[in-house]
Amino acid sequence: MSSTRRAQPPRGYAGRSIGENDLVTMTARPDPEAEWWTTKDVAAYLGIEPGAVSTYRKRGQMPAPDQTIGSRTHLWKPGRITAWQESRTRAGVGGRPRGGGKSPATEPAGIVSAVPDDDSRWIVHGRRPIYDNEWIKLYLTDVELPDGQRFEHHTVWMPTAAMTAVLNDDLTHVLLMWRHRFVPDVWNWELPGGLVDEGEEPAQTAAREIEEETGYRPRTIEHLVTFEPMIGMVNTPHHVFLARGAERIGEPTEKTEMQRMEWVPLDQVPSLIAQGQVSNSGTLVALLHVLAISGPTAPNRS
After folding, report:
1. Cα(182)–Cα(136) distance, integer angstroms
2. Which of these, 219, 178, 226, 177, lies nearest to 201 by C-alpha position?
């Protein structure tokens, strides 16, 4: 039986045995007087996760280690890392803001979204179903991270949904429903909305749900935004619409959706949100969009 003697870390390494995937404590700054910095120390200095340091190292986007113990423990001279970081004149690896973290003197001309690239893409190699019906599908997905890590990740599919902020004809009030949600056991104000039926356009769903749940028919339907409420694990697009004006055509046909509905003044909506009386993600997104961007009192509408 043979044995392999583990290499001893150099003096100044503080006696720690640390792998590259150790979690970093973002508030703990590494000792600048230490003889060596580990991957964790470099990550803490840059304000990123150790896995990101490993990715940048493999891509040659940062100084190569001054010393490597075994195959996983990489060490840098602190001065080499600090000099490299200070020499960078633009935002980049490590997320250092322009100007050393100071606020810009003037507003930026515009934000340009980065072009997707294969280097940072998570690669899906396949998936296997765990549970599958028309309401929810649960999978174990075989995924590979940019740094080469590969594991099975729980992922969920749920149907597409649509909801609408219905404003009155004077554009001063929004129609909200006070209802109970049994899963988290909370009462909150929500907008009319529901799941998109097969073969149905989201705008059609939005108009149908308004009539079924409130008895009102919207005069117009305008798409505001589409978002994913749990984008890290769940695939369920939510389409948010705005209706300007509505006509009462009868009583709601959905009798179990709410306790009551009310035309709430738009200027009272921020208070409801601050009090925690709006918990539904689609309702929050829609109301905040109306208040900040698309509604009659939004700053860009004045």
Report:
1. 18
2. 226
Structure tokens that stand for 90 in this block: 């633009």
User: Apex CA 42: angle with CA 41 and CA 47, to 5°?
Assistant: 100
CA distances in angstroms from 152 to 141, 187, 193, 229, 271, listed in the order given: 5, 36, 34, 22, 43
Decide if 282 contacts 202 (C-beta within 8 A).
no
Please name which of 88, 42, 44, 48 lies closest in space to residue 65, comparing C-alpha atoms: 42
Contact 252, 213 (CB under 8 A): yes
Q: How many CA atoms lie within 13 A of 10 on its CB side?
A: 16
Question: In the chain, what percentage of residues exceed pLDDT 90?
Answer: 58
Pick the closest to residue 154 from 134, 130, 132, 133 (CA basis): 130
Burial code (b: 16+ CB inside 10 Å, e: under 16) for 2-26 equals eeeeeeebeeebeeeebebebebee
What local confidence, expressed as pLDDT, does residue 27 receive?
41
User: Of the segments 25-34, 138-147, 261-270, which one has the largest average pLDDT value?
Assistant: 261-270
pLDDT tens digits for 90-102? 333 333 333 444 4
**Residue listed under structure tokens 């073969």:** 199
- 105 exposure class (CB count in 10 Å sphere: 0-12, 13-18, 19+): exposed
Q: Please say whether the beta carbons of 161 and 239 come within 8 A.
A: yes
Torsion of CA 120, 121, 126, 128, to 10 degrees: 90
